[in-house]
């Protein structure tokens, strides 16, 4: 790979993006300065410095000539602490624990169906993971014992030790390989980097639907437009629900489907939209877990709603059912006391990102998976 730059947000910044610009100060050779803010114009490059927390400000716009730009990099829309990234990834891990899992220091190793990354990857969830050596040998041995390729979750920032380790492997091996943008690549011919995945969040206000005026108004509008279609939520999915779900466009094997309904460290539920004839039109899986490192039941840690396994039957797509399903699940989560909802979407899925933006979601952070390439 050769460099940590370009692993996340390698696409060109656009108007409205939050960026950091490292620039050469005029008339002061050798001196550099960072400007962090939002892009007002791309050509010429104009940045409005951010306010506290990464929010848009009304500060005067700074125009930066191209000859002064040393580095231009996209950032997350808001300032996010490393502990916030860990908490969200930990809540996700509790929602997708796999069949077998164990801790190696600050790393959680999970083995499941061998298909989905979330149930079959090693994750740096402990607060010391950023400062300790990556237990690569133990990770590889764990997955070898289950006859699975080793797979590592790499959240941005807190996953930098993994990137450094795999970069060192590439350099030591002297192998080539390419890795760019949101596509896949290889580390020294032995590790492959998967696509960028965006973790998005939305705050849930008040703990009950009625106190979230934005959500309540959206639901009222959608229910009026889609009369005759009702929302149903169950503790377990039936065969019809399971038959509708696909992972990245492909049906899941029976073992993987069973994992979706396996007990987790929290609460799970399976939502669907049903018409008057009793036909299921759309499905999703919701989980309620906490992101604290020590105790999965500690009430001091916020309850988080995870929203995944979204599927709309082909003949009912482009009718607003995906939006309706998301709004209904958020209302359910809010009524259960969830403070925030999160989901994951591949960075290249512009339609999905647009739908979730319309539901009030914003980008929290990004992650990728590195998978060991095994010889045949």
TrEMBL record:
An MF annotation (GO) of this entry: acyltransferase activity, transferring groups other than amino-acyl groups
Domain of life: Bacteria
Coiled coil: none
Keywords associated with the record: Transferase
UniProt key word Protein biosynthesis: no
Domain called N-acetyltransferase: residue spans: 231-376
Keyword DNA repair (UniProt): no
Protein name: Acetyltransferase (GNAT) family protein
Organism encoding this protein: Corynebacterium spheniscorum
């Amino acid at each position: 790979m050769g460099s940590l730059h370009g692993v996340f947000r390698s696409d060109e910044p656009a108007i409205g993006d939050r960026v950091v610009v490292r620039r050469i100060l005029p008339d002061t050779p050798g001196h550099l300065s960072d400007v962090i803010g939002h892009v007002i114009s791309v050509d010429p490059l104009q940045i409005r410095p951010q306010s506290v927390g990464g929010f848009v400000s009304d500060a005067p716009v700074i125009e930066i000539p191209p000859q002064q730009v040393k580095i231009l990099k996209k950032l997350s829309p808001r300032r996010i602490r490393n502990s916030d990234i860990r908490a969200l990834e930990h809540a996700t891990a509790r929602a997708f624990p796999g069949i077998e899992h164990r801790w190696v220091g600050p790393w959680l190793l999970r083995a499941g169906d061998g298909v989905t990354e979330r149930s079959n990857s090693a994750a740096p969830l402990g607060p010391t993971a950023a400062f300790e050596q990556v237990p690569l040998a133990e990770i590889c041995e764990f997955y070898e014992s289950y006859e699975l390729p080793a797979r590592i979750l790499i959240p941005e920032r807190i996953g930098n030790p993994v990137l450094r380790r795999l970069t060192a492997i590439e350099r030591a091996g002297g192998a080539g390989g390419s890795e760019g943008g949101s596509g896949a690549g290889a580390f020294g011919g032995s590790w492959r980097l998967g696509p960028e995945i965006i973790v998005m969040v939305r705050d849930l206000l008040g703990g009950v639907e009625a106190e979230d005026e934005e959500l309540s108004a959206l639901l009222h509008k959608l229910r009026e437009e889609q009369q005759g279609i009702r929302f149903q939520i169950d503790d377990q999915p039936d065969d019809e629900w399971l038959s509708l779900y696909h992972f990245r466009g492909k049906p899941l094997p029976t073992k993987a489907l069973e994992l979706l309904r396996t007990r987790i460290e929290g609460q799970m539920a399976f939502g669907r939209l049903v018409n008057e004839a009793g036909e299921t039109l759309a499905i999703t899986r919701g989980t309620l877990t906490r992101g604290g490192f020590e105790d999965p039941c500690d009430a001091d840690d916020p309850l988080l709603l995870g929203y995944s396994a979204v599927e709309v039957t082909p003949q009912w797509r482009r009718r607003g059912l995906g939006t309706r399903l998301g709004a209904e699940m958020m209302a359910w989560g809010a009524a259960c006391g969830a403070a925030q909802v999160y989901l994951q979407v591949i960075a290249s899925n512009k339609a999905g990102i647009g739908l979730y933006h319309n539901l009030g979601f914003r980008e929290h952070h990004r992650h990728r998976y590195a998978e060991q390439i095994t010889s045949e």
